[in-house]
Amino acid sequence: MDNTSFSATEACTASPLRIEIDMAPRESLELDFSALDVYLREYSPRGLLDGFNHPLSSDTSSITSGNYSNSTAADQSSNESGSDVDMIEDEVLHISRKSKGAKAYRNKRKDEIAYLRDEVQGLQAELKALQFRSTRTRNKRTSDSTALVSSRTQQLWKQVARSQLDRLHRSEAENATLREMVAVQVLEAKNLRRILRRRARIEMMQEMFGAKGLKSLQKDTASNDSRVFQTLLHDVDEMFVEIDNLFATKGMDQLPCSGFSRETNLEIANGVFYEMRQKRELPFDMQSTANAVWECFRLLGLANLQGVGSSSAVFNVHPNIMEEDGDTIRSSFFAVISGVGDLEGTYNEKVVRRYKDSHRSVFICRVVSKPKFKHGNRGAPTTSSAQVVLEESADDVNTTVMKVYFSAERETPAAKDDPATVLAFAAWDELVPRIPVDIETILLDNICRASATPA
């Protein structure tokens, strides 16, 4: 009994102390559960159930207490019934104490739990308040520091912004100036392109017509045409005297009336190195044919040539002097040549003279060609002659027999790789066979013009 009451009393009295201890440091509830465990071990489940099933009211307790006191006083004299009474009293007291202790402990535990809950809620509220104040303080400090930093750097950033704005304005002004300059440059480039195109066209035209090389030939050519013309006319007169012997020697009467005969000999240093013979019958009278031959010799050598021979050479002819006096023609012309090495062209001096007999007409054309190269170099001059004899056909008065003898000669040998000689051969091969054809063309044109002219 003493141990039991002491344990219960200790458990009951220990709870408030534990509550105070727990309230001060707000530790865990493990001590309360340990006290409850001690209480349950000290009291048996049956006793607890008996105490809970037979609760004692305050009146009952007082009556019982009175009975105990009376019975104790009455039974002190009797030794037989004393032990039974003591046992009953102890049992009743034990049950009463157990019931009161359990109720008191339950009430105290509820109060403790409620109190602890209130404390927890209060502490949580205080914690939230502290957290709110801490957050507000931290935000205030941050805003204050930001305000301090902003106030320190605001002026610097304004200066940076102003400088960058000034730089932007300067850059825009420079860009505008550069755009204007670029527009001017584009306009100048267009004008320059237009000028270059015009110059290219001019150069192409000059190249086509030989105007560029003409200036060089004119600069390097000496003006001694009159003396050369006199020499050529003297040679023509001598050739006329010997023309019958020449034609007989060359067998001109035995030639067929179609095609031509060509002979060359480049090994000849002084004399004729190129010959071509032709014979044709033309269905035109002597007078008309003679006029056509005269017109053909006037234009001989003045035609432009392209792609002479197998080369890419181009001949552009520019007349210089043209004089006609009765039966004599004196002329000079420049032949600008491109596409043949360093050869720039030739300067040509030509004389034409015609002779008339009762039964024939003789035409002799003699040309001196002086090649000129770049850097002022000169080549060996070449003299070419074209002799034409017109005779009436024995079978028909309106048919004319035309004999053409062409020859080229030189006084000094030319170099083996002289481009002028090779090119001259190609030009003669193209021009000389065309003489009869050109005469026929002139005759036909005259007939057409005569028929077109009203009577």
Automatic annotation (TrEMBL):
Kindly list any coiled-coil regions of this protein.
Answer: 106-133
Asked if the Swiss-Prot or TrEMBL record annotates the protein with the keyword Coiled coil, the reply is yes
Q: Which UniProt keywords apply?
A: Coiled coil
| Amino acid composition bias (Polar residues), ranges on this chain | 60-82
Looking up CDD domains in the UniProt record yields: bZIP
Location of the region described as Disordered in the Swiss-Prot/TrEMBL record: 60-83
Q: What is this protein called?
A: BZIP domain-containing protein
